[in-house]
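So, can you check this one?
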Amino acid sequence: MTNNQDRAAILEAQVNAALAGNALGSLKPVVSTGGGYEAACRRCGKTVWVGENGLLYSLLAERCHGRE
C-alpha cells in the first residue's frame, strides 16, 4: 500500500478498532480473495479488511465483548 487513501483507510480501521476496545493484530496481506490486508481482534476474533484501493470492510462490533 503506497497511496494516501490506503494509509487513511488503515489508520481509520486501527483508530475505530481501538476506540471500540478491540486489540487488533497486525495487518497481513490477503492473497486468496484478490488482495488487500486483514487483521483480527485478539479478544473477539472478528476481522477488519482494507483493500488496496482504500476500501474498508469491518466485522468489528461497536464494542468489543471478547469471545462470546
User: Anything to note?
Assistant: The radius of gyration is 12 Å. The chain has one domain: 4-58. The longest helix spans residues 4-19. Residues 40 and 47 are 4 Å apart (CA to CA).
